[in-house]
Amino acid sequence: MIETARDIDTGTVARAEDLHRVYGRGGAAVRALNGVSVALAPGTFTAVMGPSGSGKTTLLHCLAGMDRPTGGSVRWGTTEISRLPERRLAELRRSRVGFVFQAFNLMPAMTVAQNVELPGRLAGARPDRGRVLDALARVGLAGRERHRPGQLSGGQQQRVAIARALVSRPQVLFADEPTGALDRATGHEILALLRTGVDQEGQTCVMVTHDPVAAGYADRVLLLADGVLVDELDRPSAAQVGERLSRLGG
Ligand SMILES: Nc1ncnc2c1ncn2[C@@H]1O[C@H](COP(=O)(O)OP(=O)(O)OP(=O)(O)O)[C@@H](O)[C@H]1O
To answer: Which of 57, 161, 178, 203 is the 20 to 30 A CA-CA neighbour of 197?
Structure first.
């Protein structure tokens, strides 16, 4: 099969079809995802919302190739990833997707530049200083490359994490509650940064959030409940998201 970054037939960079994820077995089994289908068009910003335990993180992890669905498929371009051998999947993941976590997950003993270089180094690649500096400049941290994470504010640490996710120029940037550990104003700076990446560089971005105001930065909002996609809102206001969410009990 020819591997292309974008599925020529459907124009999507990533697509999940009839995704199921069951954790555990028998009476203790939890159906985290129960038949979810999602397509990600290039250069779009998608927010995933829903009550606690509705399957948001599981969906993100399956789409990002960090978890294996128990049923259904995930395609990146034309490549079906859910049944690839682990090594091949890890290779593809490094080049195709970036991931940002709520808790930044930076290495405290390393400098900012070393943190951004780390995924490449772990993959055995030679660090590309130019790319690292470029990624840091894109997130507004030019000149900070020798600092340690502990010398930076929370918002700046999340910017480092975003630079680390973007340095490989991924097809899709996944973010799991990227503003969850930040105050409101700093959170908005991070959201504006993600939005700029979508608008100016055509980055595709998917973000889990509990915050209707954060979801207002997205082009569309997917609403999950009990592992099922129950609604999709296009360019909604924060008020519309909040109202729909409260009806779901989120
Ligand atoms: N590794 C796991 N083992 C067992 N159950 C799991 C595991 N991961 C998630 N679950 C269960 O799957 C369901 C969905 O979890 P998930 O974390 O995707 O929900 P969420 O919508 O992201 O929740 P939250 O908003 O609280 O972070 C939950 O019932 C959760 O307890």
So the answer is: 57
